[in-house]
Amino acid sequence: MLKGLDPLLSPDLLHALAAMGHGDEIVVVDANFPAASTAQRLIRLDGASAPEALAAILSVLPLDSFVDDPLKTMQVVGDAKKTPEAVRDFAAVVRRTQGRKVALTPIERHAFYERARDAYAIVATGERRFYGNIIVTKGVIDAKGRIATPAEAAS
Question: Residue 48 maps to which CATH number?
Fold first, then answer.
């Protein structure tokens, strides 16, 4: 055990998060997602829900401030305007961990799969609710330990 870290942050997950660079993506997926056949790197958190896994990840991972949509969810097939329960829970986790509202951008199912194939890693959870899938883009930490913005990086 490590002091001050969410216990869901396993050695494999911590290694992946630390190894990722700015702009790399990590995908948290539900139990129905084809994670093993899609992932370049697969990390299993079968005992956790997708929102729990997202909360653990966002406790240490900076969100990318250089893009408009650092968080992407999978659209509901046949009803792109619907917001699934798991996605509402993701939004609550983001507000709590970021201290502000950050938009979750829904993308079409097959576009989501394509992004997941290119992601640095996929975290497969035990989430049983449909559409419990989210892509997170890693940001930049400056020399003072703060999340860097594009304006700060340019100066």
Answer: 3.40.1650.10
Mean pLDDT of the chain: 95
> Does residue 36 fall inside a structural domain?
yes
Residue with the larger pLDDT of the pair 63 and 143 = 63
Q: Residues with catalytic annotation?
A: 22, 64, 113
C-alpha span between 27 and 39 (Å, rounded): 9
Structural domain count of the chain: 1
* Spatial contact of 90 and 51, defined as CB atoms under 8 Å apart: yes
Instruction: Read off the pTM.
Output: 0.95
φ, ψ for residue 51 (rounded to 5)?
-60, -35
Task: Please check whether residue 27 is in contact with residue 123, taking contact to mean a CB–CB distance below 8 angstroms.
Answer: yes
- In the numeric block, the tokens 């969100």 are attached to 63
Q: How many CB atoms sit inside 10 A of residue 98's CB?
A: 15
Residue 70 has pLDDT above 60, yes or no: yes
